[in-house]
Design a protein that fits this description.
Layout lengths: L21 H19 L3 H15 L5 H7 L10 H13 L3 H9 L2 H4 L9 H10 L5 H9 L11 H16 L4 E2 H19 L5 E4 H4 L4 E2 L2 E5 L4 H10 L3 E6 L3 E6 L5 E5 L5 H8 L1
Parallel strand pairs: 4-7
Antiparallel strand pairs: 1-3, 2-4, 5-6, 6-7
Length: 278
């Protein structure tokens, strides 16, 4: 059974929904670029161009990769040469340089504020640059201490609503949206393929394989003979930290994130175990 490059099929449960189409991922990253530019205070027209470029690419009926290879992506209405260059860099490294620069400049805690209901880039900029708050915990205590209500663009009602949202997030901080874990799944699949090649008996399993809307971690099932090689790989890999090494289980954490990945090495009947763990 080939596990690599599986594509979702709504009528066949055997194929997990583990890949975003490139166009949709590019759209999401361009939108992230636009939001972070607004948080930093860049030219709003330039930020809007990135957002509109994302909309255009997300609506394309053909792969953006094909247009980049042909050198015709910039000919699409709403996409200029700078966005074409940005997209070309995406296909080389998955995270274009301008976006990587923004992620490094803007603290992770500030970036985590953007998806919160009621907070847009302009308000997040006030929280970061005027209040000096750079973490969700700091934002939570700013609400408790009634400091946020006094900041520009906020008020008592906004503060009260945000406090409830943050308390809900604190209760569910160990849970993730399925779509948010897809990039991590893709990275791990690439690492497994690089280490073991196109071997069978390695597969995504658990809640991510079922495409549950909310999941707590990522799980992979591997044949027991891969245990030693994979443990050594995790020990020396700079992006992962080995947390647990049991007789049939390895647990690793993604560095600088709260994402846990479990590797199960169970039984000799791989497909029976895949069914059970799924």
């Amino acid at each position: 059974m080939e596990i690599w490059n599986l594509r979702p099929d709504a009528h066949d449960f055997r194929y997990p929904l583990i890949h975003l189409e490139d166009n949709k991922e590019i759209e999401a990253l361009l939108h992230e670029q636009a939001r972070l530019m607004e948080v930093r205070g860049d030219n709003p027209f330039r930020a809007r161009a990135f957002r509109q470029g994302g909309d255009r690419i997300g609506g394309l009926e053909q792969p953006a990769r094909d247009l980049v290879q042909k050198g015709t992506l910039a000919e699409v209405e709403g996409i200029g040469a700078s966005i074409e260059s940005w997209v070309a860099e995406y296909f080389e490294d998955r995270v274009p340089g301008p976006l990587r620069e923004l992620r490094q400049e803007i603290p992770e805690g500030v970036r985590k504020m953007l998806p919160i209901s009621g907070l847009g880039p302009k308000k997040v900029r006030v929280i970061w640059q005027e209040m000096g708050v750079t973490t969700l915990g700091g934002l939570y205590y700013a609400c408790l201490e009634n400091r946020l209500a006094k900041a520009s663009g906020f008020g008592e009602k906004t503060q009260a609503k945000l406090l409830k949202t943050l308390e809900f997030m604190r209760r569910n901080e160990s849970k993730f949206l399925y779509a948010d874990l897809l990039p991590t799944v893709r990275d791990m699949e690439a690492l497994l393929k690089d280490r073991f090649g196109d071997r069978a008996n390695i597969a995504l399993t658990g809640a991510m394989r079922r495409a549950c809307p909310v999941v707590e971690n990522i799980q992979f099932l591997l044949s027991p003979e891969y245990y030693g090689d994979w443990m050594r790989e995790l020990v020396r890999h700079p992006d992962y930290e080995l947390k647990t090494a049991g007789s049939d289980l390895l647990v690793a954490a993604v560095r600088d994130a709260q994402i846990t990945i479990e590797f199960l090495f169970q039984g000799v009947d791989f497909f029976r175990e895949l069914f059970l763990t799924t």
